[in-house]
Amino acid sequence: MIKEFNKVALSFHAHPDDAEAWNAGVLKLLKDKGYKIVIATLTAGQMGGCDMSAEETALIREAEARKAAAVLDAEYYCLGATDGYLFDGEEIRKKATSLIRKVKAGIIFTHLANDYHPDHRAAEHRGISSYNCFS
Ligand SMILES: [Zn+2]
Fold this sequence. Notes:
alpha/beta
């Protein structure tokens, strides 16, 4: 039996701004080809600020991610893990697998397995593992 390909592209990254930095161009091209675009970050990027609290930083970065997603008319999800402490575990595994099942992604873009940042490597592992659970 041939499985029908779902024209849904999921950008699955650790932090707000990762999708914009690494695959926004290809997401735009896919959008123009009729794909539904979904952007997910595992964290709200709360460790990415210098002179404000983690909570304030998370609010700003998540709002920026939502605005960036809106440019592509994409859905945006933040899975709520803690920036800087992204590890595989039961809660994030369930959330990632649930999201991938919900959006029925045909394509997933994520980090490289040998990325410099430990959160990126964890996101890659979680994304690929959850996708394999789904497909
Ligand atoms: Zn990042």
